[in-house]
Amino acid sequence: xxxxxxxxxxxxxxxxxxxxxxxxxxxxxxxxxxxxxxxxxxxxxxxxxxxxxxxxxxxxxxxxxxxxxxxxxxxxxxxxxxxxxxxxxxxxxxxxxxxxxxxxxxxxxxxxxxxxxxxxxxxxxxxxxxxxxxxxxxxxxxxxxxxxxxxxxxxxxxxxxxxxxxxxxxxxxxxxxxxxxxxxxxxxxxxxxxxxxxxxxxxxxxxxxxxxxxxxxxxxxxxxxxxxxxxxxxxxxxxxxxxxxxxxxxxxxxxxxxxxxxxxxxxxxxxxxxxxxxxxxxxxxxxxxxxxxxxxxxxxxxxxxxxxxxxxxxxxxxxxxxxxxxxxxxxxxxxxxxxxxxxxxxxxxxxxxxxxxxxxxxxxxxxxxxxxxx
Length: 374
Known about the structure:
With 374 residues, the chain is an alpha+beta fold. Among the domains are: 171 residues, no CATH class; 86 residues, no CATH class. Helix content is 31%, strand content 22%. Strands 1, 3, 4, 5, 6, 7, 8, 10 and 11 form a nine-stranded mixed beta sheet that branches. A three-stranded antiparallel beta sheet has the order 14-17-18, covered by helices on one side. The chain has a two-stranded antiparallel sheet with strand order 2-9. A hairpin with a 7-residue loop joins strand 4 and strand 5. The two termini are 30 Å apart.
């Protein structure tokens, strides 16, 4: 029987296959109507004049397919897939973000144009169309440059902004899968596009990004679903920008491309072979489970502290009045460094305990202790 990590790895790879297949389908559709060169113009620039009968594809459909096809062609040059551990995804979703410097997101160039996929996609409220529930499958990052907003690598020094594509799968109202479109083996996906400025003098918040999305749609204020999706995307982006992020890189390209062995106990045809992407990175596979265990311990400690208060046990020790034991939540912090503090990095501050030693049998402690949860 495969281990939990192996099963999560397979699940993440299958999500990546689904997303990449949808992007590649857009590329094939353009080629089938004679517009196969169009995505290259979204990357390299230039002028392309062509006419497509409206009964084939509308102008809006051509633009949408062109964007997805160009994203796929650029991503396919590096093929970076970052698999997010579900425990890490759940932890990041609780972290608040303050004002962010645009310059921070130039750090996304460490792994050019990654697709971050969720091994266990969380259910969110869709921000396009009529809304409703959906699974958050992946977040794709790319660079944009110039007045024409041409696509480029996230490590390109010409990059003016980071383009973010949030990819979701709509679900039925009861949370189940929707019927497949006629003639298609894959469900339809929803693509929400947003941008992050990277100029050194720009500061913004998640609310600012959500408002830009709302105004493009003709509204003054963003919906709750738009705010949630933007916050999720920025939480992932900020953590990706950290030089200390828990990201496991394959030892070599040969290891990343090694075929997956079928377990000895697996019967032929019973276990689907999975195609691991060329650059399959694991994010939060060590830190995520550890943070989950810390959170569970904090909840248990909070229950014990509440019981102590109900029993009237004091919190006064030799150091004066003490706070009851609790856990201060983790958060993301921007750290400035370098000459003149002109360079930025992001740092994940792990949850840490306050007055943990008050949980002894007497409820007393000689001195307060604050130490990181490890």
